[in-house]
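Before going further, learn to read the protein records used in this course. Taken together, the tokens spell out the fold as the letters spell out the chain. A record is reproduced here so that you can trace the correspondence yourselves:

***
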Amino acid sequence: MIIQLYLYDSFDNTTYKILKLLDDNDIKFSVVSFHKDDSIEYISNQIGVKVRRLPTVIVDDEVVGSYYDLFEYLINKKVINYEGKLCQNQ
């Protein structure tokens, strides 16, 4: 699973939650940051897909979304459980 996190260079609460979820579960990911003044059109062009806001998570070239979308995605893929902890079979 290739996880890419796109965020602004000034973190907000959602960004911290995404980073904590991935880090707490030792899930590898890459980060690309943008300046707060960068337009969403510029960011979309750089990423290669249309995004609506940052932070945005892309998994295996699929736009997943932000924190809650990532949380649900990882549960559905049986990577984490409903408590946000790594599943036993991982």
